[in-house]
Amino acid sequence: MPRNSALVRRSRGRHVLLAVTVLVSALVVPVVTAGPASATEYPTWEDVQRAKGDEQAKQAEVAEVQAALRAVQAEAAAKSQVALERSADATQAEADLAEATRTATSLQAHADDASATAQRAQTRAGRLAADLYRDGSTDQMTTRIATAGDPDALLYQLGALDQLSTTWAGVMDDASVAAKTASSLHDQAARAEDERAALAAEAEEKARTAEAAQRRADAAVASTESHSDELYAQLAELRDSTAETQRRYEVGQAVAAQAAAQAAAAQAAAEAEAHAGGSAAAGNAYPSTDGVVVDPAAAQAYARSVLGSYGWGDDQFGCLVSLWTQESGWRANALNSSSGAYGIPQALPASKLAAAGADWRTNAETQVNWGLAYIKGRYGSPCGAWGHEMGVDPHWY
User: Fold this and answer.
1) What CA–CA distances, in Å, run from 26 to 270, 307, 326, 357?
2) By the 8 A CB rule, do 135 and 158 touch?
3) How many CB atoms lie within 10 A of CB 47?
4) pLDDT tens string 165-207
5) What's this model's pTM, rounded to 2 decimal places?
6) Distance between CA atoms of residues 106 and 89, nearest Å
7) Residues 249-275: tens digit of each pLDDT
C-alpha cells in the first residue's frame, strides 16, 4: 500500500499526506448514493421476497440492500475513527505526564541535594567563624604580643590565624553559591510541579473523552453488526448464495475500489514528496488497548486458517508473516503516529478497514480480512505484496 510503514522508518511530508487524504477521502466513509437513510428504512425480508421473481426488481433490490449496508457501516466507521484518535490523544497525554513527573521528581531531588550542600557549607562557615573569634580577638592578640616568651611560636600562631581567615572566606563564598543554587532549583522544581499538575488534569480529561468516544463507538459497532448480518443474508437470498460468500464479495469489492483510489493517489503523493525533497522520520504509537485484543500469535493463526479461502496455499504464509511483522508486528493497535496508518495491515486511512467490519478498530480478524482482500486485489498473493515491499525504498506495499 502506498503509505508509511508502521514500524519503519519514514513519513511523508504533511502536504503529501494532505494530498493522499484528499484523493482517497471519498473512501474513508462509505458513500451512500441511494437507499435507506435510517434504520427504519432498511430493506425488509418482504421486499427481498417480492423482488426475487423479477430480474429487474431483484437488481434494484440488490442495489438497495448494498446502499443500506454502506449506510449502516458509515456511522460506526466515523465513530470508531474518532475513538481511535481520542485513544491516541489519551496515550500521548499519559506519556507527556510521565515525562513531566520524571522531570519534576528529578528537579526536586536536585533541589533537596543543593539545600543539604548549602546547609553543610553554612555549618562549616559557622564553626570556622567561632574558631576565628576564639583565636583572633583583639584583646587576646594584644595580650599574646605583650607576654610572648617565644616569638617563633607567636609567628606560627599568626600564620595559622591568617590561613584560618582565608579558609573561612572561601567557605562563606561556597555557602553563598550553594544557597543560590538551591533557591534556583527549588524555583525550577515548583514550576515543574505546576506543569505536572496541569498535565495530570489534561491527561485525566483526555482519558474521560477517550472512554466516552469508545462507548459511542462500541454502541455503533454493535448496532452495525446486527444490521450488517441481516443485510448480508438478504444479499445471499437475492443472489442464491450464502451470507459468508456475500460478505467476502462485498468486502472484496469495497477494498478493490479503495485500492484503485489509492493507486491514483500514489502518483500524486510521489510527485509531492519528490518536490518536497524527502521525508521525515516516522513515529510509532500503540493507543490504549482498551477493547483491543493484542495477540500477534492468534492473529497469525487466524490468517493462516483463512488463506485457502483466497486461493492461496500454505507456501504464502511465510511471506505474509514477514510483511505484517515489518508493517505492524501483527499488533491490532499499531498506529503510525505520523501518517495515521492503523492495524495489522496498516490501512491508511485507518477507517478503510471498516469495509471488512464495523469492529475494525478492536478486532484483529476483521483487520486480517481487510488486509488479505487488499493483497488479493492489489498484488495477487502475499508473496507478491512482500516482493513489492522489499523492492522499494522506503518500503511499502
Assistant:
1) 20, 30, 28, 18
2) no
3) 16
4) 566 566 667 777 878 888 888 888 888 888 888 888 888 888 8
5) 0.49
6) 26
7) 777 777 877 776 666 666 566 555 544
